[in-house]
């Protein structure tokens, strides 16, 4: 069965597939820049089941836009022969990523649009990077995610939620899909039913008013964060300037006191 692994860049998609397949030819990122840039399937037997785990480029803004990633995934699905019906999708998300707004929200909504709500029972939302957060903080962060608009929508329509503490012990996540039937994603249905071209379908999702609004929200969030950072930097600079002035004043006072002392001593010397 075909299982795609999707999610933002750096969320652990390739790490997950590498651990499940025990292959050492799968590249994982070594820094913040996106690593995987093509869609690729890796076969693996787990228990009595044969899986193909499909690695995908991360939703990201810097090199590939969400639209590029969406297009690549849709094109891979459309061009696969025999046609691929995914049995499931694992969407990975870093539990220590505290950007609920902005790019992660837009990426998630884009993912949701790719799949359609009917696909939710075949989706597992799995959080990674638990080693990078205090357990309680992680649990409250997970609750926050579950309550956030797009996660909530997907969970209410049937998506599961899992935690990945250890990549070597994730077989149970794959076993969840032995209870689901392969199904077309919304984007595949759209292509088959309407006969629209792939680029039209991708454009209609990526350029929809909703995505534009999320993009505007993301820009506003980023600008607000930049303005805050610049205010903080300026406050820091002002503080350093005040401290330097105080230091100069205090050095000047010491010099004046020393000078006054010397004068008093000289006067005393002269009158003696
Ligand atoms: N501490 C910690 N590091 C992790 C975890 N998962 C992945 N990493 C590291 O995060 C980096 C990115 O992991 P990848 O598996 O390449 O992420 P990806 O989702 O495939 O990223 P792209 O291919 O860029 O979309 C690598 O250095 C991993 O070793 C985790 O749970 N905890
Ligand atoms: Mg990768």
UniProtKB/TrEMBL annotation:
Residues 225-272 are annotated as: Disordered. Residues 234-256 have a biased composition (Basic and acidic residues). Residues 2-81 form the G domain. GO terms for molecular function: GTP binding. Signal peptide: none annotated. This is G domain-containing protein.
């Amino acid at each position: 069965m075909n299982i795609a692994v999707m999610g933002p860049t750096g969320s652990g998609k390739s790490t997950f597939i590498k651990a499940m397949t025990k292959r050492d030819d799968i590249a994982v990122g070594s820094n913040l820049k996106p690593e995987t840039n093509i869609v690729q399937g890796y076969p693996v037997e787990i228990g009595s089941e044969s899986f193909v785990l499909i690695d995908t480029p991360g939703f990201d803004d810097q090199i590939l836009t969400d639209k590029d990633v969406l297009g690549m995934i849709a094109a891979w699905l459309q061009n696969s022969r025999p046609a691929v019906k995914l049995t499931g999708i694992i969407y990975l998300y870093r539990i220590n990523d505290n950007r609920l707004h902005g790019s992660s929200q837009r990426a998630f909504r884009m993912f949701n649009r790719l799949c359609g709500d009917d696909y939710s029972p075949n989706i597992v939302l799995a959080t990674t990077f638990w080693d990078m957060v205090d357990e309680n903080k992680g649990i409250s962060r997970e609750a926050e995610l579950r309550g956030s608009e797009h996660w909530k929508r997907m969970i209410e329509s049937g998506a599961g939620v899992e935690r990945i503490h250890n990549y070597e012990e994730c077989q149970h996540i794959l076993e969840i899909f032995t209870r689901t039937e392969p199904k077309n994603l919304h984007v595949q249905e759209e292509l088959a039913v309407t006969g629209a071209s792939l680029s039209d379908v991708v454009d209609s999702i990526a350029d929809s008013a909703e995505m534009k609004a999320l993009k505007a929200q993301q820009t506003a969030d980023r600008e607000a964060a930049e303005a805050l950072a610049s205010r903080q930097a300026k406050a820091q600079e002002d503080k350093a300037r005040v401290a330097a002035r105080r230091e100069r004043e205090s050095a000047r006072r010491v010099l004046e006191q020393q000078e006054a002392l010397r004068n008093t001593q000289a006067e005393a010397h002269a009158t003696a």
